[in-house]
């Protein structure tokens, strides 16, 4: 019978032997690394890997952090890092927390030398984060920076599904995760001559933190739902746009009086779709070439905005032929101005043709998933070619505040859904034109003592004043129209009278002329019938004698 004391003794001997073996191996390996030439070690490693490859059933794929140019991080590495941070960080035991350059929150990812598993359609794979340093530079005075890389390992029988499906899934999922985690930005352009030489982009930006959403937007609920559905359908239609052969972009024209929420609508669109915003200032763009460069530098998942486009440039008159006026004085004056303002802002030479090409020309197809938004207070002033369907695909009118929009504002500002004063407000809003901005200003408490009833009373007073003002303006308009009509009638009567007098004068003149012609004709007819008179015969004789004498 075996003694119970033998088991732990056997285990102790086994661990002792294993430890001695590992120590001996590490010692021999250290000696080899120290004294064996690097080239010889590389030779043995190269052929040992080839020999092992014949029997080793697994395939490895490496994703290096920097490929080629070390100044730019590999897109594939970043996508894998984002994918693993979301899908494998729960199973990893060693994690690192980082705040990415363009990230809005803390990101957890695998730490170095950590190994995690992933499953894709029943196929098991292993991911390992490792690093390497060139041996030739280890003892250098300027050691080379460590090179990090992810290593993917999988069985060779799954080669097709991994290389064709899984890697595509990892990259696309990783990019989506990066987009969701990134800090969204608000970009703007500046005049070309102000760009610093060290800047590699024509845009400058700040973090976009506008809190607007469609839930807080003062608008009719049905119209709001229609816009949301349109935007969400666009964001999911990449394959559809490719199928119909059209660039993945869409144009929106927002028009209406000032204070109706056009800029707020743009912010809500960006927040809904998680897009960046490029606020394009056309007056700062030198010419069409510069406009094209700005377009090229915009990214996907973005909204390109041109606000108050009717005021930005004289785009409507550029299709008409303009008379050319030039003089020596004007040329001299322009030369002087050019010399004085050589380093100052140069006027924009962007044309309507250049802007149309910017919207839907060949260059507009670079990138994808873009919205182009124009805002204006006067849509009728814009050239029809600029806002036709295909360029501005959806026209959205943002008009004066309705009762449905008021209820949204009341809920936002006062947390009210019903109140006895709502009936009065509904009646007044139906009779008065007031913008959502004015309604919001009256609903906002101005002090801690202001309650909902006081704010609603303030709004009712503002509506009544607006109604009275509108009535006065209407009365003044009618009076002006009546006065204008009266003046027009008087002017018409005066012109009619003058026309009648002129016609009478002409008629009288015609009659006098006709009488003269008639008298002359009668006189001539009388001479032919009766022959010459004595006076005519005497005058004829005098004329003959005078001629003979001369």
Could you characterize the architecture of this molecule?
The structure is a single chain. The protein has 550 residues and is an alpha/beta fold. It has helices at residues 6-35, 38-55, 75-87, 159-181, 221-235, 238-243, 262-273, 288-296, 309-312, 328-340, 352-360, 384-387, 403-414, 422-431, 436-443, 452-530, 534-549; strands spanning 58-64, 95-98, 107-110, 115-120, 123-132, 147-155, 185-189, 203-207, 249-255, 276-279, 302-306, 370-376, 394-397. GO terms for molecular function: ATP binding; ATP hydrolysis activity. Belongs to the AAA ATPase family. BCS1 subfamily. Residues 471-521, 531-550 have a biased composition (Basic and acidic residues). Keywords: ATP-binding, Hydrolase, Magnesium, Nucleotide-binding.
Low-pLDDT residue spans: 1-7, 317-328, 337-345
Beta-strand portion reads 5-15%
Mean pLDDT across all residues, rounded?
80
Distance between the termini: 187 Å
Tally of separate helices: 17
**How would you classify the helix and strand content by structural class?**
alpha/beta
Number of beta-strand segments: 13
Shape: elongated
Strand arrangement, major sheet: 8-7-10-11-12-9-13
Most strands sheet: 7 strands, mixed
Kindly provide the radius of gyration, computed on alpha-carbon positions and rounded to a whole number of angstroms.
44 Å
Q: What is the share of helical residues?
A: 40-55%
The secondary-structure element order is HHEHEEEEEHEEHHEHEHEHHHEHEHHHHH
Family: Belongs to the AAA ATPase family. BCS1 subfamily.
GO molecular function: ATP binding; ATP hydrolysis activity
Cofactor: Mg(2+)
Pfam families: AAA, AAA_assoc, AAA_lid_At3g28540
